[in-house]
Amino acid sequence: MKKKILQQKSVNILTRKSSGASTKDILAKLISRSHKTQKNSDITAIRTQVEQTPVAQLTEIFNCDICEFKTSRKRNILAHYKAHVAKQVFCCNNCNYKCTKKKYMIYHMKIHTGEKPFSCNVCEYKCIQKSTLQIHMKIHTGEKPFACNICKYKCIRKGDLQSHMKIHTGEKPFPCNICEYKSSRKSYLQTHMKLHTGEKPFSCNICGYKSIRKGDLQYHMKTHTGEKPYSCRICEFRCIRKSSLNNHMKIHTKEKSFS
């Protein structure tokens, strides 16, 4: 009976329109009330009500009222909310990282210790998680299970395909607050911000070269080693970057991309 009453109250709160409160404020009240009770039956009732609420009503309210957490996915806010209620938040002592599962914290701590227990048997790549190594191995096998249904793009990770699709939709949800730059990925924006701060965290131990991206430093190091892994199958041309080889091949195909 108590569970039904709580569910009915939840329905009344979520569907009330006459008070003028936004859906964000409504969900905040619901979460705040559940934080005070902290009972499993209450949590289950509220979780069920939120899950059954149409997505259209929740698109603007994926913000935690207890902390600064924000998300665009309903399942993420539910997991985050449950962590608050159950008080199962694990905090890193070295940085601001927080998570809801102990295993995630164990993986995270290896970033600080430098531990990389999983290594590739083809190249020198090492990583923290076994799943990351499995993704890396697809580079050697050439497997690209995720394909774009608009163009011929294929990739190893599902997240890469999701970012690629924004090229077709034109969506760039991450804007720079200094200039007009916008990007489809948060990581691209973080790299871009270093242009404004002048930060160049990757430096060559042979010369004075510094770069914003780790990949740029890796390419630079090949100038010292003389390594040129990309070669033309028609002539003797060799180069450091795959993009340079692609441009070179246009000489043979007579392709002129720019008019």
UniProtKB/TrEMBL annotation:
Organism phylogeny: Eukaryota, Metazoa, Ecdysozoa, Arthropoda, Hexapoda
Span of domain C2H2-type: 90-117, 118-145, 146-173, 174-201, 202-229, 230-257
Any GO MF annotation of the entry: DNA-binding transcription factor activity, RNA polymerase II-specific
Listed PANTHER family: TRANSCRIPTIONAL REPRESSOR PROTEIN YY, ZINC FINGER PROTEIN 143
Gene3D superfamilies: Classic Zinc Finger
Matching InterPro entries: Znf_C2H2_sf, Znf_C2H2_type
Keywords, sorted A to Z: DNA-binding, Metal-binding, Nucleus, Repeat, Zinc, Zinc-finger
Keyword Repeat among UniProt keywords: yes
SMART domains per UniProt: ZnF_C2H2
Record's protein name: C2H2-type domain-containing protein
GO cellular component terms given for this protein: chromatin; PcG protein complex; transcription regulator complex
Intracellular or extracellular location(s): Nucleus
Pfam families, per the entry: zf-C2H2 (PF00096)
Family assignment from sequence similarity: Belongs to the hunchback C2H2-type zinc-finger protein family.
Keyword Nucleus among UniProt keywords: yes
